Batch of 2 targets.
Target 1
Amino acid sequence: MNQPIPTVTLGERLRLRRQGTRVDFLLAVPRRHGPIARMSLWGGLVQSQLVTDPALAHAVLVEHSDAFMKGLGLSYFMRPLLGDGLLSSEGDFHRRQRRMLAPSFMPKRLADYATTIAGRSEEAQRALRDGASVDVNAVMMRLTLEIVGATLFGAEVGAEAEEVHGALSDAMEQMSRVLRSVIPIPPTWPTPGNRRGLRAVARLDRVVYGLIEERRRSGVERNDFLSMLLAARDEAGGQMTDRQVRDEAMTIFLAGHETTANALTWTFYLLARNPAVRERLERELDAHLGGRTPTLADLAKLPYAMMVFKESMRLYPPAYVVARRALRDVEVAGRHIPKGHLVVINIIGMHHDPALFRDPERFDPERFTPEAEKALPKNAFLPFGAGPRVCIGNHFALMEGHLALATLAQRVRFERSPSAPPAEMEPLVTLRPKGGMPMTVQRRAIEA
Ligand code: HEM
């Protein structure tokens, strides 16, 4: 039997939006209306359902995944940048690509990347002077961009890193601006902003196609994503065109850095506000590493660092919502979702729901001991999504976060001025801290 879905009226939306940020809105709607609420967006052009419930999220993302496709944000507005890469492609083509890329993300391949991640993190911490004021978000963005650049393209991208960084930021900035506007302008319209975005994409293309061409010509195989993309074969032995390799590389580049950078930024913010947690983490790092650069093998001995990282992603999930569009009328756990409706899975809303996490606003890494994590309600913690489109980089991201946190936290603390107000979340494509994360570096002596 279908249950009626409560509606968030435009007046209520405007009132709630005036009272707080978009994140406050995502937290307030389920408290007022329950696990599913309907609202119209973009002046009534789009009807949407906000879903804040693990069982309903599972029904949409896993059980009935074939009845949905991605929202327009990725598949249309980000197309100039991402093309038909894994984030934005659909149907049989997505399934083929996902199968072709899966071996590159297998845990055994990840070992190849661990040295790069730890090495780049050491360089990043060495560059931090005692007493310096830094924007921790900018530091983490640069670090994760370097990591994804090096794991994708090997050392070759070194010389062009600045160009790639600038062009990617410009393209992202433009696309976020479009997605933030009340009525988004199609990317094909020749507005000054769109032109700027397309110019940035053209700069990126020049670098990426150059790297692909060089690698095909030299025939040298390396331990990086680019070599794996070029070598990948589908079941019929077919390989990817240059255009497809470019789309997948750009997708990995984009999907693989801002999310992890934000997760690390919020982690250091939470550590500064919770000195007891920070001290416990430092004791773990000092006792096991004693100043050494961590390796992949060390991670099993640093469980608290992983608990801290996961609890940070619970409070501040970098991908705070995921969206789907219904391809047909569909019944989801007793609710009727009409064809064309947008379903927004409210990941941040679930992560802050007191029915799923006791005292949800408290930063408590103990929620992620292996036993406690197993006992969490199924699908209540969804930082990487679920189902056939779950983040393909989730093992990579967890390893990267774990290694970077261990490497940095054993050498530096980031302190926040006691007079600084709590950091505000800015939900753009990912969950950034509004205005960056200004903090002061304090270098640590390692306890023997
Ligand atoms: C903390 C870091 C990360 C978070 C929170 C995160 C989160 C997510 C989420 C929620 C999705 C699913 C989106 C949806 O269902 O609509 C996703 C997809 C994806 N992620 Fe991640 N991600 C992270 C890091 C990475 C990294 C490091 C890579 C690559 C190296 C990556 C590559 C991808 C790709 C390619 C997809 C598309 C998968 C598909 O649709 O088949 N992500 N990510």
Target 2
Amino acid sequence: MTLNEQVRQFWEAEICGTNPDLIGQAPMQSHEWYEAIEKHRYEVEPFIHAVAQFTRYHGKKVLEVGVGAGTDHLQWARAGAECYGVDLTDAAVEATRQRLALYGFTSQLQRTDAEHLPFEDATFDMVYSWGVIHHSERPEAIVAEIHRILKPGGEFVGMMYQRPALASWDLWLKHGLLRGKPLRSLRDVIWHHMESIGTKAYTVNELRTMFGAFREFKGEPILTPYDTRHVPGWLKKFIPDSWGFFIALRVTK
Ligand SMILES: C[S@@+](CC[C@H](N)C(=O)[O-])C[C@H]1O[C@@H](n2cnc3c(N)ncnc32)[C@H](O)[C@@H]1O
């Protein structure tokens, strides 16, 4: 089985951010279910709005790669963007389609592997992808596709995982040190234990190289609740963003 087929099966089994332990027991695809997903998402990742800046893209042609449950996709629609979305799974595409319909919006959604995007060159004003590209077998292929389908001057905005981060060391502690395998690398524990199999995480400089075909690159680490879950409350404000698991990306073609 290819890696992306394993990735697909993992995310088909449960759409990202919809675990009932996190969002409660509302019936799937009901209005309450979508509201609970949205409430939880922006409580734990409130910085998404500052990174995405949804309202700046009113009237723009926006593609979201890896829509998941469609929470951010709804924000693009609310902001008045002309919305397109893809995901590797039927579950995500259907949940997002249903969600937009429930709120009176539409988007051109399709299931596809983003390593091959079914769009003409220079089609989009912006491409957005939050926490997706590092799950794919060949992230570089997705980045090359994003570059191809963006118009000149178009932007990519998104998030990818940072390897030298507290959340990575937390995983290493659990699956390396405490299992008597202190020599396990951060790469290895992230590959095997961070969500779907094959997950990768990078340094800002590695991402700068991956996005080397673009004209401008900005990558800024963000400290997340996944980094600080074992840190006492009073200590959190002293931890710098540079130790965070997320790298917010704003890149221009
Ligand atoms: C961690 S979830 C993030 C979903 C959403 N962006 C969010 O923030 O909630 C990862 C998503 O990426 C999708 N995905 C992984 N590899 C992909 C690929 N090669 N092409 C398209 N989607 C992919 C998965 O199906 C899953 O829905």
